[in-house]
Amino acid sequence: MEWLRRGPKARTTKAKARISNAEKIIGELAEGSDRARVSTAKIDFTATDRRTKRLWAGKRLRKAGLFDDLDLLLTPGSRLGVLGPNGAGKTTLLRVIVGELAPDAGTIEQADDLRAVYFDQNRESLDSSLTLRRALSPEGEAQVAALARRFLFRYEQLDTSVSKLSGGEKARVVLARLMLKPADLLVLDEPTNDLDIPTLEVLEESLLAFPGALVLVTHDRYLIDRVSTHILALDGRGGAEYFADYSQWEDNRTPAPQPERQPTTDSARSA
């Protein structure tokens, strides 16, 4: 680094290679330092002081083609994992819970002034035109630099556009924003996408420590088994069933029907 500070001239191919190699090593060191700091990152979801026993309750909920006659109760300390094949209605159910969609039938009751925080898998809550600084501090929080460090961003990244961040970096921004919001109910749709192992471990511990209610959709079997107190499985055909854990659901899964094999005609064989 001292040699680079002296401004060596890149007059020959060998000198250019030495400078390029040195810059590459410095970049790798910085990246390694960021990864090392991940293990010390702390994700704390902020709970409210609510003592209500029933936070959210749905009776005989129906959404055409996805789920029918579904009863769902969310209480402080309950952590519901939602499973099912793609297109079974997992994200639709989460959007019903947070009020973005209305059910086709059924009734919903929720605690007064319920505070629900929603992590959407498409990061739609992020405005790609913002800088990292503005994305981390939508209300102008004074401690944005400290928040950035906590979520493993370097100070010089603060003026970087959100559109230039990687998928994992965008996920960390969303998690940081969620931390700033007191919540009774956390609704997380695939929060583990693009996260590395150390950050996943920190997220897991934070979810276990959260005293409110949690609804979690994830393809991470280990996380859903470790965090969930019970499982709701959607079968993609309108049915829904509760299970104690992932293994019980897997043992009771009904394989999806296979399309009938059409008989091969002589003309098809010759073709």
What is the H-and-E element order? HHEEEHEEHHHEHEHEEHH
| Proportion in β-strands | 15-25%
Percent helix, as a range, is 25-40%
State the end-to-end distance.
69 Å
**The CATH fourth-level homologous superfamily of the largest domain:** P-loop containing nucleotide triphosphate hydrolases
CATH fold-type name of the largest domain: Rossmann fold
Please, how many domains? 2
Q: Can you count the beta strands?
A: 9
* Rg, Cα atoms, Å: 24 Å
How are strands sequenced across the largest beta sheet?
5-6-7-3-8-9
What's the pLDDT, averaged over the residues? 79
Shape: elongated
Structural class: alpha/beta
General description of the model:
- By secondary structure, this protein is of the alpha/beta class.
- It has two domains: 2-6 and 15-38, no CATH class; 56-251, 3-Layer(aba) Sandwich (Rossmann fold), CATH 3.40.50.300.
- It contains ten helices and nine strands.
- The model is unreliable at 34-41 (pLDDT under 50).
Concise synopsis of the structure shown:
35% of the residues lie in helices and 18% in strands.
Task: Output the keywords.
9 strands; Rossmann fold; 18% strand; elongated; six-stranded mixed beta sheet; three-stranded antiparallel beta sheet; 10 helices; alpha/beta; 2 domains; 271 residues
